[in-house]
């Protein structure tokens, strides 16, 4: 006689499922909690948000026209100059002073920031679209890999800044004629910066796609007859989102700097259209008397780029699963 | 390794030809006419002859072919002649009279050969930009090594912050800022680089040093920021490796472990990065040369662009492209030579 076997044996204590002791967390929640630990990235993100809101909402809060000439109030110093120099020409009407034509520096800074940020974002998005597109195509389709990567190598061995200068000086006139001085220049700079800065993104994305393509879930998707385009859209792109986001931040930083550099060298926007680089370049000639006109736009450029770079640093840490959770 | 190097070298020829073709065709679109300054009283047939003398007025492909011949066949001849005639290096050789008056690449601004002007400008660029690169490397390496060795220390945090700042502040801001502080307020250094200055004694050497400090520092700041990040990351990769523990366990002193074992291995990627940055010495200093009025190659390119001097722009851009391709190749080969684990075949 053997003992009757119980219908359902009592589970061994050690093997029993404990059940998750905390609710499962999504990937993006993890990313966010890791991102929040990076102080520099948080400060950078808030600063970028602040600058973006400032240039978007600034014209409604500080309603002076950046291009209005007020020759009687020219060469005003910023209001803080009064702290050490009581004879300085200051006024609350122009808190950051005015330039040699009496245009208000604060509203010029806001308008210039609008232009710089718009160029930066647009060029960054363009270079991301090109870079991610070429990277995915080269990684996924074997036939395209060779030619596209040779193309990338070719672009990488082009001298970028000289070519930028050449392209801008060559195509300035025709584009200005068809889109107006500001619109033409905007299109030109965005295009030129976009098509000369997509190469790193393409390389990173291609490498990731090459690795992902061999994974089982792509094989499964292909085995049920998913079209290549659908696989790319549904399975590959979401997985290469993190390197794309990191290179997006770097792209934004380089685009802002490149636009300012072009303006500084005098091939950027027309002179009555303020951008940060243009303001800086115009002020260099008289920086002994009015250093603030160099320093204010310079600080604006530098802090924005610094913020974006820190944001990218934090994003890289947060999106890297090997670092996350440590 | 040798076959790899040869293959890459051969492959770089079509690349360079293609790049030069693209640049040439891009420049063909340029508006502007080198004859625009010639008075209207000059008869059109004379103008046509002047145009032909400058190499314009023929189909674009013919012009491109002539440019290729001038750059790859005639200019080397001139260079070899110069080497055997005037240079101290090969001047003892008998004179080679290879060049006999063919048309060289002529600048539209000065109507003199482009290469002569480039050779005049190279010393200034090499002195300022090359020296700044050396200074940048010399500052960056110790910073990178020490901040990796003491990771998360105060020095590391400060170093990381400063490199981030150096990454973010563009040279067209640091340049004017330094000029405002050191030339205007303190009056220590001159704000303009005087290229005609000749060093002949101690006092004039001091003047030369004074005028070089600011442009060199602006450029070195950028180099330092990029390189010390690489150095730090590369040292961090190596410091946790097993062979480091073995070296310590053998009883080697800490200095030997870090400065010999770890450093030698961490230098491999850093050296390739340094090699990749060399072309930027020639091309990337356009802004700094502009700020400090150094009349080097970058400044030459800018003035040529504004003056619509297409042969000069074409040749300079092509020189930059050659440098980039060559140093990419050098970096790859160095990487293979230094690291026996890398096999290209």
UniProtKB/TrEMBL annotation, chain A:
It comes from the Bacteria. It is a multi-pass membrane protein. This is ABC transporter permease. SUPFAM superfamilies: MetI-like. The keyword Transcription does not apply. Residues 14-27 have a biased composition (Basic and acidic residues). Belongs to the binding-protein-dependent transport system permease family. It is found in: Cell membrane. InterPro entries: BP-dependent_transpt_permease, MetI-like, MetI-like_sf, OppC_N. The chain crosses the membrane at residues 41-62, 118-141, 153-171, 183-205, 236-257, 294-312. Keywords: Cell membrane, Membrane, Transmembrane, Transmembrane helix, Transport. It comes from Salipiger mangrovisoli. Residues 113-312 form the ABC transmembrane type-1 domain. Residues 1-27 are annotated as: Disordered. The lineage of its organism: Bacteria, Pseudomonadati, Pseudomonadota, Alphaproteobacteria, Rhodobacterales. The keyword NAD does not apply.
TrEMBL record, chain B:
It is found in: Cell membrane. InterPro entries: BPD_transp_1_N, MetI-like, MetI-like_sf. The chain crosses the membrane at residues 9-30, 125-149, 161-188, 208-225, 268-292, 312-338. SUPFAM superfamilies: MetI-like. Pfam families: BPD_transp_1 (PF00528), BPD_transp_1_N (PF19300). It is a multi-pass membrane protein. Keywords: Cell membrane, Membrane, Transmembrane, Transmembrane helix, Transport. The keyword Membrane applies. Belongs to the binding-protein-dependent transport system permease family. This is ABC transporter permease. It comes from Salipiger mangrovisoli.
